[in-house]
Amino acid sequence: MSEKHSGLNVSVYFGKHLVELANIHEGARVLDVGCGWGASLFPAAQKVGPQGHVTGIEIDEKSVEIVETRFKERGVTNASILLMDAWKMTFDDASFDYVLGGAVIGFLLKEGTQELCPETHRVLKKGGRVGFSTWKTMEDLDWMLESLKMGFPEVPESELSVYSRYSPDVLAAILSQAGFHQITKHTIGTEFLYKDKETWWKDMQLYTWKPFYDKIDARGPGKLEEFKDAAYNSLLDNSHNSDGSYNVTTYFIFGTK
Ligand SMILES: C[S@@+](CC[C@H](N)C(=O)[O-])C[C@H]1O[C@@H](n2cnc3c(N)ncnc32)[C@H](O)[C@@H]1O
Prior knowledge:
Number of helices: 10
Number of strands: 8
Strand order of the largest sheet: 1-7-8-6-5-2-3-4
Largest sheet: 8 strands, mixed
Bound molecules: S-adenosylmethionine
Radius of gyration: 19 Å
CATH topology of the domain at 4-138 and 163-194 and 248-256: Rossmann fold
Distance between the termini: 33 Å
CATH architecture of the domain at 4-138 and 163-194 and 248-256: 3-Layer(aba) Sandwich
Shape: globular
CATH class of the domain at 4-138 and 163-194 and 248-256: Alpha Beta
Order of helices and strands: EHEHEHEEHEHHHEHHHE
């Protein structure tokens, strides 16, 4: 918790931890569900080595393009990415030794339930390991949420919240209900630091919040800038070291098929 990661992408930091904690062996076949821009896909590709393979799947076309470009730039030949919906995988049964999913579990639960997408179990080999990470706390987003709540008192918090919180016990129950055993839990937290106000503001451009920023902007000239200043100052005020550093803590959950 004492280490402070300046300018290091939060997803990349936790993606690496997901791969480390999974204990992936050389030569393994790994599936990264909802791999995004490759936070865990790239470290997994290093782990499996030239005899192994990592397949990323993504529902977002832009992410697929970004990862494909990164493969070329980084000369990665033991990984691939497919545009595929996690709920409709086209892989054979028991295709993978590991199934990983970084910050994706919210998309892998049947709506309104704690039922895990059965594909994650089906495509895993018997004895294979599944591993997910999910946010416990993201202080920077929590502070922005507070600012938005003040700006939009009439909007229910559930509409403004951007991430779901699942306790380790709930996560364990989800995996066990999905047929996994030997469940292990980990929690890792660390301090991050925004380089400057503009870097922070760029990170706050989450699609869920964009419509609210537009509404603030429509309130009059300078209103969005005012809001931005107030929100940034609240980050500095709430920061443990008054330097804008903020804590992010993530839960990791693993299970065996
Ligand atoms: C919060 S991001 C996490 C990305 C990456 N795993 C990481 O750790 O940085 C969640 C990702 O899941 C993808 N996703 C959501 N639903 C999906 C689905 N049904 N099938 C495949 N990908 C999905 C989104 O497009 C998004 O890139």
